[in-house]
Amino acid sequence: MHTDVTLNLLDKVTTALGKELRVFSAKTCAAFNTRELKREVAARNRKRKSKKQDKSHSHAATSDSCHSVSRKQEPETPRTKLLNLNTYKVHALGDYASTIRRFGTTDSYTTETVCFSLYPVEVVCLRFLVGRENLSTADPKLDTFARAGRISPNR
Q1: How much is the pTM?
Q2: Do 151 and 125 meet the contact criterion of CB atoms below 8 Å apart?
Q3: In the 8-state DSSP scheme, what is residue 148?
Q4: Beta bridge partners of 80
Q5: Nearest Cα residue to 15 out of 84, 94, 92
Q6: Which of 70, 82, 79 has the alpha carbon at shortest distance from 42?
Q7: What CA–CA distance (Å, rounded) separates 100 from 89?
Q8: Which residues contact 101 (CB under 8 A, 6 or more apart)?
Q9: Tens of pLDDT along 63-122?
Q10: Read out DSSP for 7-69?
């Protein structure tokens, strides 16, 4: 349970975290030469190769007069990787405290669609999907519900 004191503290700590992340990115990350992993390089090479094959197949099918120069490309080497702070995850950090103030913690509500009905969920959902069509013709199981008086066969 959050109080005004804890939410104010979260605001201050989030601000400090943002400043420290920017300092870390500028100073510490700049001091290291980080490269892609071998699997990332291999994936990029596979993608480049498949795009090249797709382009040559579509190019050959559309135009016979164009002659492409065939260059033997070496497999790419690992690229330099930098810490990316321009992501939504980092951007959204500043909104957490205000969101908790406005809506409460995420364990106190759900975004799941809830269907309240006396009827089985599949009947309500099928009635929504089928629309004004006779439900008894949509599904034989619904005809059983209709005959038992649990639902009306027509909307």
Answers
A1: 0.53
A2: no
A3: T
A4: 35
A5: 94
A6: 79
A7: 16
A8: 7
A9: 544 444 445 566 678 999 999 999 999 999 999 999 999 888 877 777 766 655 555 555
A10: HHHHHHHHHHHHHHHHHIIIIIGGGS--B--HHHHHHHHHHHHHHHHHHHHHHHHH-SS----
